[in-house]
């Protein structure tokens, strides 16, 4: 199936089965995504926190913390999925190439502890997270995982 057909057949999921994809497959898909996704200067300024089927307590706490006061129950059904992935920005360690560019005056906010939470850095991080998520979605769809 072409990538276009895969993404056209994708659907928004609100209800989940009790059957989760095997943990080995999930890790394989995440590792494959990591190897495929581009990252500016290979810095990968984000990290993933993966909560699987055995993380019931943690996912319940996330569900509680993301509930709004005006909702009786949290309407965010995605948090009930067998796997929940939370992305966070991270202070990247510059590689040798980036170090040489920093010495020449280039700015890499994702490597600068004083600036890495600024708007420009977050925009770049969010763009990379979007690319990661899109590639992971495609790989999951290839495995019939919505």
Describe this structure in words.
By secondary structure, the protein is mainly alpha-helical. Helices cover 42% and strands 8% of the residues. The protein has helices at 3-8, 23-36, 56-65, 96-103, 119-142, and strands at 46-51, 84-89. The protein has a two-stranded antiparallel ribbon. The chain is globular.
Average residue-wise pLDDT: 87
Strand content: 5-15%
The span between the termini is: 15 Å
How big is the Rg? 18 Å
Structural class: mainly alpha
Question: Looking across the biggest beta sheet, what order are the strands in?
Answer: 1-2
Low-confidence regions: none
SSE run = HHEHEHH
List keywords for this structure.
146 residues; mainly alpha; two-stranded antiparallel ribbon; 5 helices; globular
């Amino acid at each position: 199936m072409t990538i276009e057909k895969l993404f056209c057949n994708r659907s928004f999921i609100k209800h989940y089965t009790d059957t989760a994809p095997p943990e080995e497959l999930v890790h394989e898909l995440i590792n494959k995504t990591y190897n495929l996704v581009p990252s500016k200067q290979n810095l990968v300024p984000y990290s993933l926190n993966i909560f699987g089927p055995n993380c019931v307590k943690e996912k319940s706490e996330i569900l509680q913390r993301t509930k709004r006061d005006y909702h009786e129950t949290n309407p965010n059904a995605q948090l009930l999925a067998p796997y929940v992935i939370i992305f966070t920005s991270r202070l990247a360690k510059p590689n040798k190439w980036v170090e040489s560019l920093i010495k020449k005056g280039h700015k890499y906010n994702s490597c600068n502890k004083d600036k890495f939470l600024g708007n420009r850095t977050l925009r770049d991080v969010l763009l990379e997270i979007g690319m990661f998520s899109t590639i992971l979605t495609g790989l999951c769809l290839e495995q019939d995982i919505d």
